[in-house]
Structure to design on (815 residues):
């Protein structure tokens, strides 16, 4: 141990004798290790942290689907069927995400879920205080109770241990709090969205009253019995779904081709985000490799200057292995110092990542520098130290040290120069790969932002409203609220138009609805057509500036007792009535949805609802006053009111809240945002990736440029006598500059030759993240290659110009 301590002290003294080089190496490694550690902290928080459920590997996400359609939730009858008839399931819990209005002071809308009594059992989590619902409470006639989240308990109830048993007014109905969930608990969909459901209310499934299998709105998770594999459980689930199709043919038409499916819960929750995060970690690892190559080049230069010292130590008995270990130890010390500074950078970087976090990135709130991240930083430092010191150590252990004692160069200069050149070539190649990825992601983001969504994105304000169910149980009162509110909003100063919609574009997912066109009988076995559906009030098309191309929009004439009306989009018109005029055509809505039979009164332009990168789907707009759910319920209570203004729409927020409370002070006004902000949020994921990869690539470009600068400067210093001779015999300064810069450009060319094939292969990994640009896009690759060549030439120009200005007599006397 005393020998190790002595070697460490000797290495530290050696580094202190070269403060400039040591500082440059530490800063370079700090940037690489800090960026890698910051990204790893996100990967650790998202991908490596266990789900907040015991034995989460025994949980299976369950869903149903129709052939050619996206997966859907389960109907209440299917939940009861699968719970009782799939022996692979020990427990099956279901829930439906919603919102609820909590009264008591100023009303507030909170995230809520209607959950079955066995959901918490299936997830394996019990309340920290009190209890969960009982089977008797989980019925339509059960006692009005609620379970609250830990966050709700602290914020709304002051963290009081006497919270259990208190009364809470939810949607106008008093409920008794029976339990408080533990800190960290979240529903699977909340884990995926990084959110927290605050209230859990009984779902109230009644087996005796369930006969409709067409309402698929429930999320479900099953806990598997011991010894049952996920694949075996999915097979048993599909067999039960097939039996249900045969048993209830009226509910599952043959043309729908119904089935069920499932996946391990962890895969279901994190599957979509795993690939982007792994790609980001790969990109930042490439940056660390560039930093290591840069530091290795610095250490090679220093090793050239220390050859005489090392030769003396060898002559005094030090073995070559001992000398190589000394050089390697110095490199490890530099990397440890870089890691210490890198962890400080990672702390700042993680805060930056939190600020840039897109909404779809789960659990990022838990990102930070913890023990696991510190262990990763230490491991990265040790690996970086070995990577940086390996080439210099091998060089020291090679032959030719004895020549240094005679004052000669031996044969070491040129091999070391070639090794440094190889490191620069590697830096250029890796930098090109990073720049190519950043360029593609940047062009993809620019393409997304240039897409016309089909509606106004400026000067439009959206306000989410939800009416308390207990206070608005009757249809006339619901219709009266919106009929009174919208004219008041249109009368506000600066407001041009106002309307309301059930699902705001780019924020929500639309469901589709089957229909049968009048006079067009369905052939046996054929699949009935379907289209996405929206519910809107008069003024919506005008407020969003969605052009109505033919006919008219929804107006006050489309009242509750008027004939059924519908506005369809262009795509639906093309699909259902190609080359024909759809105005006046009639069709019947499926599933018993009201108003039943509707007549096409207008054709609106297509809009991009699911995302700027998603092509518009067939869509229909139904009047709010006429629409009724297929279960016989009343009209929609929750709507997004949209207002188009001649001035800054954000300034209308207080006036809108005032008008809402003038109509009903019990209706909360919570979610207020501009459509511009909605659009920006919809591209947060692509923007996040483009900013990070762009930052890494620019940093790598700077490091590669510095490495190239150092190589040319070192070569110029070693060739000062040659330069003097060339100038003395008539060479011009421009010839000297051309010679030295040419070597830099040659290395850049070799780096491009290696990097371009790697970029062509590497960018294929980004294919799913790109929009409007293909991996290996020639224009992008040509642009980044030009940038690399320009930086390389610029990096070589300054030391070359300095060498060309050295007076010949001084150059000839330099040695």
């Amino acid at each position: 141990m005393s020998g190790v301590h002595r070697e460490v002290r000797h290495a530290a003294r050696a580094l202190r004798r070269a403060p400039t080089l040591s500082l440059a190496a530490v800063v370079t490694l700090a940037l690489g290790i800090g960026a890698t550690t910051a990204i790893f902290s996100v990967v650790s928080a998202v991908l490596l942290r266990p789900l907040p459920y015991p034995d989460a590997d025994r949980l299976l996400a369950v869903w149903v689907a129709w052939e050619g359609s996206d997966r859907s939730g389960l109907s209440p009858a299917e939940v009861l069927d699968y719970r009782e008839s799939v022996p692979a399931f020990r427990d099956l819990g279901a829930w439906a995400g919603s919102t609820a209005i909590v009264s008591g002071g100023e009303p507030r809308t909170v995230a809520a879920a209607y959950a079955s009594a066995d959901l918490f059992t299936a997830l394996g989590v019990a309340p920290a205080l009190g209890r969960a619902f009982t089977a008797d409470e989980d019925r339509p006639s059960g006692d009005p109770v609620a379970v609250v989240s830990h966050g709700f308990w602290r914020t709304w109830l002051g963290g009081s241990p006497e919270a259990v048993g208190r009364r809470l007014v939810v949607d106008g109905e008093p409920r008794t709090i029976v339990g408080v969930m533990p800190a960290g608990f979240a529903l699977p969909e909340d884990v995926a969205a990084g959110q927290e459901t605050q209230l859990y209310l009984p779902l109230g499934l009644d087996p005796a009253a369930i006969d409709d299998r067409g309402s698929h709105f429930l999320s479900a998770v099953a806990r598997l019995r011991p010894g049952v594999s996920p694949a075996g459980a999915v097979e048993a689930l599909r067999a039960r779904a097939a039996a249900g199709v045969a048993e209830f043919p009226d509910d599952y038409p043959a043309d729908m081709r119904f089935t069920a499916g499932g996946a391990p819960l962890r895969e279901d929750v994190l599957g979509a985000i795993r690939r982007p995060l792994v790609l980001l970690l790969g990109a930042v690892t490439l940056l660390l490799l560039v930093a290591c190559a840069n530091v290795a080049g610095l250490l090679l230069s220093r090793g050239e200057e220390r050859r005489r010292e090392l030769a003396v130590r060898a002559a005094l008995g030090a073995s070559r292995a001992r000398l190589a270990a000394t050089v390697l130890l110095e490199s490890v010390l530099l990397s440890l110092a870089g890691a210490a500074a890198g962890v400080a950078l990672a702390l700042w970087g993680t805060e930056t990542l939190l600020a840039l976090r897109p909404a779809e990135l789960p659990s990022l709130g838990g990102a930070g520098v913890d023990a696991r991240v510190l262990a990763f930083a230490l491991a990265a430092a040790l690996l970086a130290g070995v990577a940086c010191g390996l080439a210099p150590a091998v060089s020291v252990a090679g032959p030719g040290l004895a020549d240094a004692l005679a004052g000669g160069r031996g044969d070491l200069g040129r091999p070391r120069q070639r090794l440094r050149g190889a490191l620069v070539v590697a830096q250029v190649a890796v930098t090109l790969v990073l720049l190519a990825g950043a360029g593609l992601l940047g062009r993809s983001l620019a393409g997304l932002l240039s897409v016309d969504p089909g509606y106004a994105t400026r000067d439009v304000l959206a306000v989410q409203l939800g009416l308390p169910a207990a206070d608005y149980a009757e249809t006339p009162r619901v219709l009266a609220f919106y009929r009174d509110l919208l004219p008041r909003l249109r009368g506000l100063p600066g407001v041009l138009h106002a309307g309301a919609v059930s699902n705001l574009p780019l924020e929500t997912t639309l469901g589709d609805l089957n229909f049968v066109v009048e006079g067009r009988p369905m052939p046996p076995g054929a699949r009935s057509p379907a289209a996405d559906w929206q519910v809107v009030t008069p003024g919506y098309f005008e407020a969003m500036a969605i052009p109505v191309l033919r006919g008219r929009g929804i107006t006050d004439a489309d009242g509750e007792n008027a004939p059924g009306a519908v506005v369809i989009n262009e795509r639906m018109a093309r699909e259902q009535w190609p080359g024909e005029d759809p105005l006046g055509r009639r069709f019947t809505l499926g599933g018993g949805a009201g108003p039943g039979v509707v007549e096409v009164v207008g054709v609106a332009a297509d809009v991009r609802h699911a995302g700027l990168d998603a092509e518009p789907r067939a869509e229909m707009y139904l009047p709010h006053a006429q629409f009724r759910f297929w279960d016989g319920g009343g009209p929609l209570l929750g709507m997004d009111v949209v207002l188009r203004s001649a001035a800054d729409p954000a300034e209308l927020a207080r006036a809108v809240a005032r008008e809402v409370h003038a109509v009903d002070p019990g209706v909360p006004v919570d979610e207020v945002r501009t459509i511009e902000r909605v659009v920006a949020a919809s591209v947060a994921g692509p923007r996040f990736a483009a900013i990070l990869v762009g930052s890494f690539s620019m940093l790598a470009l700077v490091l590669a440029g510095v490495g190239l600068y150092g190589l040319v400067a070192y070569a110029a210093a070693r060739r000062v006598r040659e330069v003097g001779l060339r100038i003395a015999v008539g060479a011009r300064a421009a010839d000297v500059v051309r010679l030295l810069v040419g070597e830099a450009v040659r290395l850049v060319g070799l780096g491009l030759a290696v990097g371009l094939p790697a970029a062509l292969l590497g960018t294929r990994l980004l294919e799913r993240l790109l929009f409007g640009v293909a991996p290996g896009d020639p224009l992008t690759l040509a642009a980044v290659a030009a940038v690399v060549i320009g930086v390389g030439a610029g990096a070589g120009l300054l030391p070359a110009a300095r060498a060309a200005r050295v007076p010949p007599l001084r150059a000839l006397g330099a040695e």
